[in-house]
Each structure stands twice: as structure tokens, then as C-alpha cells.
Amino acid sequence: MNRRQTRLSADTIAVSRGGRTIFEQVSFTLGAGEMLAVTGANGSGKSTLLRAVASLLPLAAGTIRFEDPAREDAPIAESVHYFGHLDGLKPSLSVRDNLALWAKFAGRAGLPAIEALEQVELDHLDDLPAGYLSAGQKRRASLARLLVVQRPIWLLDEPTSALDSRSEAIFGGLLAEHLAEGGLALAATHRPLPVESHATLALGAA
Ligand SMILES: Nc1ncnc2c1ncn2[C@@H]1O[C@H](COP(=O)(O)OP(=O)(O)OP(=O)(O)O)[C@@H](O)[C@H]1O
């Protein structure tokens, strides 16, 4: 997939919640294959920034643009995967059916469900109701969702929480592959991320 000309940019953006300005004057640019780690203290607005990029929250000021020659008119919301704190799995559906449902809902098919589960080493549990998975397994099943639907921008909110060291390495491999294919990523994190290099945006810094 050639995504060399894709570019995500935020220009002097601000977001308010409940009448309070959470952050303002935030700008960044990300090109194909690049990742930005968003750091800052609790409450500094990391999740808020990711949600604003996903178009889940309105901007109080500034603009966010995503240029993608492959999808000129597509709204940015259709170009992102939002990997948030919640796993978004339906507990009574099997792990495999959860992924199949997500692929059907979100479109732009990526890997078949079973192959995505192999990537996160969960294929042996594919017919188990998702509600029975452990916290780390749920996180891995949620990671597999990034693979069954192709989206150029991964928005990752504390992506390594609940992952053991092996799962963290698997996640690092998937993220490296996504970036190598020209994908982009924005990750809110308190912990070092398992990727070779990335830029950092510190929120709440004077
Ligand atoms: N719906 C809301 N209404 C008003 N304020 C909110 C709302 N949701 C979040 N906030 C506030 O927005 C601020 C930023 O929250 P956010 O979750 O983005 O922080 P964060 O940097 O991701 O924090 P953490 O490191 O704890 O995950 C916090 O002060 C929070 O209380």
C-alpha cells in the first residue's frame, strides 16, 4: 500500500470540555510511517486530544486535516482506528465473531479474523465468548481489531496497559509493521513505547 503522501496535521487546536479549556495552541504534523507519542500528567488532555482527532469531540479552535490521496473525500473519522481504554468487545459473542462483526461494521477489510487472532496469539481461543477472556487477552483481542479493518491512522490510548512483556512485544511488532506500510500513529502514554523512534508531544508543559 502506498501512503507516502498522507499527512495528518493539527494547527493551533484547542478543546474545551464542561466549559473548561483542556488544552490550546497545540500543533503537530505527522507523515506516512511516523508516530507521535502524546505525554503529560493525568488530566492533561491526552485522551481528549485523541478523541478530537477521531472527530469524537469538537474543536474550540484550530483545524485538523488529513490528506490522503487514496481517499480524498473521506471524513477523518473513517480513516482512524480509536484504540481506547475500553475493549469494545461484546461479551456473549465469541472472540472470532467479535472481530467479524467489527470488520462488517467498519468496512475496508484487512486480515480475516482467524489470521488477526493468530497475530496476537489468540487463535486457540477463537470460539470462546469474549467475556471469558482475561484483561490482557481482551486487550489482545482488541488489538486484533486493528488488523481486521484497514485504517491509516491508529489512535492508541495507553496501548500497552494490561499487556505482559510478550504481548507488548507482539504489539510493538504490529505497530512497526503498520508504520512500515506507511501508516500513522498517535499514542497517549505514560510508558515507553516498543517502537524504535518517534516524536513526542508533551501536553501541559509550560
Ligand atoms: N465530559 C467531560 N466534561 C468535563 N471535563 C471532562 C470531561 N471528560 C474529561 N474531562 C476533563 O478533561 C481533562 C483531560 O482528561 P483526559 O482524559 O483527556 O486526560 P488524560 O491526559 O488522558 O489523563 P490520564 O493520564 O489520567 O488518562 C481532565 O481534567 C478531565 O477531568
From TrEMBL:
SUPFAM superfamilies tied to this protein: P-loop containing nucleoside triphosphate hydrolases
UniProt xrefs under SMART domains: AAA (SM00382)
Keyword vocabulary terms for this entry: ATP-binding, Cytochrome c-type biogenesis, Membrane, Nucleotide-binding, Translocase, Transport
Pfam families, sorted: ABC_tran
Sequence ranges assigned to domain ABC transporter in this UniProt record: 8-206
Cross-referenced InterPro entries: AAA+_ATPase (IPR003593), ABC_transporter-like_ATP-bd (IPR003439), ABC_transporter-like_CS (IPR017871), ABC_transptr_haem_export_CcmA (IPR005895), P-loop_NTPase (IPR027417)
Family note: Belongs to the ABC transporter superfamily.
Protein name stated in the entry: Heme exporter protein A
Organism whose genome encodes this protein: Kaistia defluvii
